[in-house]
Every structure is written in C-alpha cells, then in structure tokens.
Amino acid sequence: AVLLAGPPGSGKTAIATGIAKELGRDVPFVPLAASEIFSADIKKTEFLMQTLRKAIGARIHEVRKIYEGEVKEISIEKAPHPYNPYQQIPAGATIKIATTEDSKRLTMDQSFAVQLIQQGIETGDIVQIDPEGGRIVKLGRSRRSVEEKKVDLSAVQVLDVPNGNVLKEKEFVYPVTLYALDMAAARRGGDIFSIFFGGRESKEIEPETRREVDDYIRTLVQEGRCELLPGVVFIDECSMLDIETFAFLNRALEQELAPIIIFATNRGFSSVRGTDIRAPHGMPLDLLDRLLIINTKPYSRDEIRKILEIRAGAEKIPISDEAIEYLTEIGINTSLRYAVQLMAPAFELARERKSGRIEKEHVSYVEKLFVDVKKSVEYLREYEKQFLDL
C-alpha cells in the first residue's frame, strides 16, 4: 500500500489518474472518496470489502468448440403458433457455412432459429456458432459479399472469410472482477422469500459466497485457466476515515487476495477520527508503518507554467506568452487551481472582445471579478461585523 501525502494542489490526484491510465484496460482501478463510505446504505466494512473485490480482476481462459465461417445457404422452417394457428413461428433451421478450405451443413432447433431471425443473419454473413453455450454471434460480413453488392457505406464490419476447418477449437478470454463473480454467485443462491414473495434483496454478500468464489478462482489458477490481475484502489481524503475503517483496511492488506491500496491526504498532525489520538496524517501508526509514503511538494514556477500550457492545449484555448506568464505569477502567489480556473472566463472575455487569443488584460480583468481564497478571507475580515453569525 502507498500513501500520497502533500499540501493541497500538489498533484496527488494527478498521480493516481496517471497510474490508472498506465495500468491497462483489464486491470481494475477503483477511485473512492472517504466520505462515500459513510453515505452508503450498507455497513462500512461491507462497502469496503466490495470495493476491494472490485479492484481484483481475473482473466479466465476457456477453450470451446465452435463453428465459424461464411453463411452460404440458410433455410428457416416455420410452423403454426400453438395458440394462434394463423401466426407462423420458427420451428428449426438449416444453415450451410464455409471457410476457405471446408464447408458444413448444420441443422438447428427452434432456439437457434430464433437467434438467426433476431440478428438478421443472411447469406454472406460471417457467423460464429457455440453449440455448448447455445449462441450464435454475427461477426460481420464477408468482403466478397460487400463487393458484389457494391455498397458505398455499410455499418456492418467487413471481414475476410475464415480459413481452416469449420469446426475448430478457439480460446475465449473473459475479464471479470471478483465482485462480479460474488454478485453472480449471490444471485444464484438467493433466498426463497425474495424469489416468491418479492422480499427486499440483501445488498450484502455472505462470507461463504466469497469463499466459494475464492476457491473456484484458486482452482482455475492451479489448472492454468485463469490469471489474477490485482488492481488499484485509490482512497482520497483518507483522513476522513475512522478508526474502525482503518482497522479493517489494516487486516485486509494481509489477505492473500488483496489489491494495491493508494491513500491520499493533505492533513498534517491531526486526530484519528473516532479517537482522541493525534497522529501524522490522521492515520493510526500501525497502519502508517505498513505504507510506502510518497511526499508531494508544491509545484515550481516552471512546472506551473508547463501545466498551464498543457491545460490550454487540451482545452484548445489560444493564449499569448504574456498571458501565460501572468497566470504563472497568479499560480505562484495564490494556487495553481485558481490560475487554471481563470482560463475559461478569460477565454470567454477574449471571444466577446473579438480577440483571437487570451491576452494579459483579459486575465487581469477576470482576476478582479473572481477573487482567490486569500482575498476572500481579507474581505471577510474587513466586513466581518456586517456578516450574519448563526
């Protein structure tokens, strides 16, 4: 686990966002504000456990036999509806699919025939049939079929005809989280009352259900059919957590299946919530001893200028060097956040005055309209007697 400790506006959340982008698509990243734990309608420990399980991914590999190829012929058999003889319903189907080297004719029952109609499958489509799962997937349309129809625009993906045999073994990869598996197992084992009488479904997951999921995943890992992807939980404002929550997280870090937890705080010495103990960053010392602490420092002048230039480029805001320099001075004297927030109204003012970019006078004008925290505090002290005290 890691602790990002530094003053406000020193880039703690930016570091966490950068980590999330570097992790990759299948690695879970779960951002969390400490105040969310106390606003949930379930127990704090259950909410935290669900959050930790959301941050543990699993990539399950499964090899299945499938039929794959281009549809050459398709025939759907229809029969009268059992309750309405004037209505026809699909009763079965016969389909011929082919690859570049093989072809096969398949007969199907009603469930497959219904899927053929629902997906609008016709000759020239590339399909994938999973006989074990009972599913047909339309992958796209063959390039030859599209060229024959001479269509300029098509929303269907154009594919080459598969090669090899029609019946083949193919590996499927399913990225899931342990939380998703927990929910699936909990729904499968729901109580009888909620099924028949519409009772309120429990939002908490039983420990036995989680143990079953853990045993299942552990078995798949031992068989080489699954790989675990420990993700990241980012807890902002961690000084808002209480002693019970810290105790739970302290124990959770010792578990075999545990994600990486990144805490962030801008507190110095403060009381641990729920106790009278004053500790660094408002966190218990036994938990701090387990953390790798990264101290973030206020930005330098060059860093503030670079961040403002990057932000202007991302927002597509043209700005002069003189205005950037003036905003840099504002960021040094007040805060980077205030300097960044002035860019939007300054750009609107520049457009109103028919200017192609933000100039120094635009920033100076909006700075007088929107004051920073220091000026607001000075104003409050000056007119303190005229404000209402409740």
Secondary structure: elements and pairs:
Elements: E1 2-5, H1 12-23, E2 29-33, H2 34-39, H3 44-54, E3 56-80, E4 88-98, E5 103-108, H4 110-118, E6 125-130, E7 135-142, H5 143-149, E8 158-159, E9 167-177, H6 178-188, H7 192-196, H8 207-222, E10 226-230, E11 232-236, H9 243-252, E12 260-265, E13 269-271, E14 278-280, H10 285-288, E15 292-295, H11 301-314, H12 321-333, H13 336-341, H14 343-352, H15 360-369, H16 373-382
Parallel strand pairs: 1-12, 1-15, 2-11, 7-8, 11-12
Antiparallel strand pairs: 3-4, 3-6, 3-9, 3-10, 4-5, 6-7, 13-14
Helix pairs in contact: 3-9, 6-8, 11-12, 12-15, 14-15
Number of strands: 15
Give the terminus-to-terminus CA distance: 43 Å
The proportion of strand residues reads 25-35%
What is the mean pLDDT?
A: 87
Global Rg: 30 Å
User: Describe the biggest sheet?
Assistant: 8 strands, mixed
Uncertain segments? 191-200
Shape, per Cα inertia axes:
extended
Based on secondary structure, the structural category is: alpha/beta
